[in-house]
Design a protein that fits this description.
The chain has 154 residues and is an alpha+beta fold. It folds into two domains: 54 residues, no CATH class; 95 residues, Winged helix-like DNA-binding domain superfamily/Winged helix DNA-binding domain (Arc Repressor Mutant, subunit A), CATH 1.10.10. 46% of the residues lie in helices and 13% in strands. The strands form two sheets. A two-stranded antiparallel ribbon has the order 1-2. A two-stranded antiparallel sheet has the order 3-4. A hairpin with a 6-residue loop joins β1 and β2.
Length: 154
């Protein structure tokens, strides 16, 4: 491991040129080391994260264009199935109109009557404080799984 770490520094273990991606700092007592990314290392790490994010968004390339907010709402619903639209709106700090429009776009039918994506189901429930509950459809579950697969591989 120390060989790899040193090769990622400015000066490789064998005395040759390293990659300059990390910096090693010794603590005052000389027993602990801090390993920090350099600016170059941060740039490469960010590019790798962006690449993973692009892979995570691949399922949406087969669908009509959607907003980042819509993708976020889908993921929040996936993590909170059975919650009401109001609960999801509160989590995301969205107003009711925006939330309603986004939810219907993710469901079978948009609020304007056009076709939705069919990724969520809006179930009618009869609870005191809740009239509707949101669940993923099988297609929605498959999309979320496809999104998370590249991120889980890390």
């Amino acid at each position: 491991m120390s060989r790899i770490v040193h090769d990622l520094c400015d000066l490789a273990r064998n005395g040759g040129q390293g990659l300059g991606l990390i910096e090693i700092r010794e603590e005052k007592r000389g027993k602990r080391l801090e390993i920090l990314l350099t600016d170059r290392g941060r740039a490469i790490a960010e590019a790798m994260r962006c690449q993973q994010m692009l892979l995570a968004l691949r399922p949406f390339s087969k669908m009509p264009p959607i907003t980042v907010r819509t993708v976020t709402v889908l993921l929040i619903i996936a993590a909170n199935e059975g919650k009401s639209p109001a609960d999801i709106a509160r989590l995301l700090k969205l107003n009711r109109a925006d939330m309603s429009k986004t939810i219907y776009g993710l469901a079978d039918r948009k609020s304007n009557g056009g076709p939705g994506l069919g990724l969520i189901q809006i179930a009618e429930v009869s609870m005191l404080n809740q009239k509707q509950a949101l669940f993923l459809t099988n297609q929605g579950r498959a999309v979320v799984e496809e999104m998370l697969a590249p991120l889980r591989s890390q």
